[in-house]
Amino acid sequence: MSRIARMNIFEALRVSHETQRALSARLLASEAEGPERQQIFLDLKAELLAHETAEERCLYVPLFEHDVTVDASRHAIAEHHEMDEMVEDLEELVGDSVQWMAGARKLCAKVEHHLTEEENKFFQQAGKVLTEAQKLALAKEYEAEFLTLRVKETKLA
Fold it and tell me: Which of 30, 113, 130, 135 can bridge 37 by disulfide, Cβ–Cβ 3.0-4.6 Å?
C-alpha cells in the first residue's frame, strides 16, 4: 500500500517537509571533517529538488486557476528558486570552510521559513479552493511524481 494512500495533498507534502527538517538538522550538526556531511548535503539537495518540482507540478500549477492562490503560489515558487541558488552556491564551496557552513545555515533557515509559511499560511488558502476529491487526487499525483524525481535525483547525486 502506498505511503500516502489515504493522505490528502497537504499531509503528503508534510512527509517530505519532515524529511527536509531532519536532513537540515543533521547537516547543521555534522562535523566539518566528517565523512557524512557531503552525503547529508547530497540527500538534502535531492529531497529539495524532487519535492519542489513535484509540489510545483502537482499543487501550484492547479492553484494558478484560482485568483486567491496565484500570488502565494508565485511566492512559493520564487522561494524554491532562491533555495536552488543557495544549493548551487554551496556546491561551489569546500564543505569544511567557514563560508560553506554559513551558507548551509542560511539555506536551512530558508528551508524552515518556507516550510513553516506553507504549512501555516499557504495550505489553509489552498485548502479553501480545492475539493476533498482534488486534495486526495493531488496527493496521489504528487507521490508518483516525487518518487520518480527522488529516484532520479539520487542517481544523479
Answer: 30
Q: Which residues contact 11 (CB under 8 A, 6 or more apart)?
A: 4, 139
User: Is residue 1 domain-resident?
Assistant: no
Whether this model's pTM surpasses 0.85:
yes
Give the residue carrying C-alpha cell 487526487: 137
Q: What is the dihedral of CA 125, 112, 77, 20, to 10 degrees?
A: -110
Tell me the per-residue pLDDT of 86-133, one tens digit each, with 9 for 90 and over.
Answer: 999 999 987 778 899 999 999 999 999 999 999 999 999 999 999 999
| Residue 103 located in a structural domain | yes
Contact 27, 34 (CB under 8 A): no
Domain assignment present for residue 96? The answer is yes
